[in-house]
Amino acid sequence: MASTKLDGKKIRDWDSFHDECQQAFGFPDYYGRNMDAWVDCLSYLRDDDGMTRFKLNENEKLEIVIDGAQIMRERAPDILEEITYCVGGINERYEDYGEKPALQLVLR
């Protein structure tokens, strides 16, 4: 399983969240730095679009580990809630196309 980490201790606001994500996922320079762009980039993990540094196989998942999730929950609960919601939505999108879910969120 592919894996990447976000440092929840560094995430204080939306700007720091998108900084962490751009580095962790390898989003392109033109990444829109909003949740619509985040969802779009992570919706093509099994394609050759180059929206992330990851290219998953048919049944593979990308594990997103948030280290320091409790600190993030205290500082930026809205961001953590939005990540959880969007991961679920992205996985539903994959299932709508007859594919297995592509993301697994791990809070540490």
Please characterize this protein's 3D structure.
The chain is an alpha/beta fold and 108 residues long. The chain has one domain (2-107): Barstar-like (Barnase, Chain D). The protein has helices at 14-25, 35-42, 69-75, 77-96, and strands at 2-7, 62-67, 103-107. Strands 1-2-3 form a 3-stranded parallel β-sheet. Helix 3 crosses helix 4 (77-96). The longest helix is centred in the last third of the chain and has 20 residues, at 77-96. 22% of the residues are buried. The model has no long low-confidence stretch (mean pLDDT 96).
Q: What would CATH call the class?
A: Alpha Beta
CATH superfamily: Barstar-like
Helix content percent band: 40-55%
Order of helices and strands: EHHEHHE
The CATH topology label is Barnase, Chain D
Strand order of the largest sheet: 1-2-3
CATH architecture: 2-Layer Sandwich
Number of helices: 4
